[in-house]
Amino acid sequence: MSRGLASFQIAIAKPVRIGDTVKYQDYWGYVESIYYSFLVLRVWDGRRLVVPVQYFITYPFENWSMVDARITRTFTLRLDHCARPGELRDVFEKIVAEDDDAVDGGMTLTLVTEHNEDYQEISFVATGSNPADTWLMEMRLREAMGDWIRDHHPEWWQSDRLLMARSGAGDTC
């Protein structure tokens, strides 16, 4: 009886529809099909999760495409206190502007989100067009910022590392 009621609630309220991108527990995936007592989620790596319909009536979940598929992602880098957030902001904005998956007019932020005796944590925020492409965009942006810091200001990496150059080795990275 409760499964039938849950299916009825899904059909009327439509908190989740076929094609939606949802976060279910530690997975994110696409709603592939909805049946009387369960629905099928296709997760990012191609696996299918069979989830009772009642879960989506009983527990909170994230529907990343209910109104708009755009999504904002954040990554952080722990850097030395000598790192200049303003310079990082300029570089990040340029990198985001060149990324095909970044949304024009979307959120682009560079913020110092933590500062302690060991490091400053700098968060980078950007908006992408949909969850799958935005995840890939986040990975590219993180890689690009790491490359830029390594190439232009290696002294900005958190300074509690000990680097020892090997004899005959050029770069230490």
Structure description:
The chain is an alpha+beta fold and 173 residues long. The longest helix is centred in the last third of the chain and has 22 residues, at 131-152. 30% of the residues lie in helices and 29% in strands. The protein has helices at 2-13, 55-58, 85-98, 131-152; strands at residues 21-24, 27-34, 38-43, 48-52, 62-63, 71-79, 108-115, 120-128. The protein has a five-stranded antiparallel β-sheet with strand order 4-3-2-1-5, with no helix packed on it. Strands 6-8-7 form a three-stranded antiparallel β-sheet, with helices on one face. The model has no long low-confidence stretch (mean pLDDT 84). The protein is elongated and about 65 Å long. It contains four helices and eight strands. The relative contact order is 0.14. A hairpin with a 4-residue loop joins β7 (108-115) and β8. The chain has two domains: 2-63, SH3 type barrels, CATH 2.30.30.60; 71-156, Alpha-Beta Plaits.
CATH architecture of the largest domain: 2-Layer Sandwich
Q: What is the rounded Rg? A: 22 Å
Principal-axis shape: elongated
How are helices and strands ordered from N to C? HEEEEHEEHEEH
Question: Tags for this entry?
Answer:
8 strands; 5-stranded antiparallel sheet; 29% strand; 173 residues; SH3 type barrels; alpha+beta
Layout of strands and helices, then pairs:
Blueprint (H helix, E strand, L loop, with lengths): L1 H12 L7 E4 L2 E8 L3 E6 L4 E5 L2 H4 L3 E2 L7 E9 L5 H14 L9 E8 L4 E9 L2 H22 L21
Antiparallel strand pairs: 1-2, 1-5, 2-3, 3-4, 6-8, 7-8
Task: Describe what is shown at a glance.
The chain is of the alpha+beta class and 173 residues long. The chain has two domains: 62 residues, SH3 type barrels (Roll); 86 residues, Alpha-Beta Plaits. It is built from four helices and eight strands.
